[in-house]
Amino acid sequence: MPYRTIPPGWTIDWSDDLVWPLLDIEASEISKPYGRMLPAIVPPTPKSFRALEAGLTLGIEVLPPGASADADVPSPSAAAPAPPQRKTPSIKSLQDCILAIKKDWMDAPPDRDKLRELVETRLNRPVGRDLVDRIRKQVAPQWVNPRGRRR
Q1: SS3 call for 57
Q2: Element (DSSP H or E) covering residue 56
Q3: What range does the domain containing 25 cover?
Q4: Are 98 and 135 in contact (CB under 8 A)?
């Protein structure tokens, strides 16, 4: 059966036995776990190999017999959440974000894990724990316990 992938251009070797456990038929997706080589999934360009190194999820649409895979790919629905961006945010945007959270949490400061979760939610991208801690020490030093103080 002809198929197309979303994003377009990926090739899947359906005869490879490693592909089938990764296929989610109900969601029409195939997901490659992080760090696992899978020669059955070939990217459209050499630059796309980065997507293979990270966890990869491809949408799969089975087409009717004789249909072309080059037809228009449907745009994602408005209700679908935006995928998180991978690029690290700027220091200025992190400072602004933590200052905004500081205004919202004046009564009781969040712990470091909760603060990181709030920052990632506001910025819609992953942020390193050490980076959030470093900015927190600069912007909200009253939230940092002095060294040697028990929690």
Answers
A1: strand
A2: strand 56-62
A3: 3-62
A4: yes
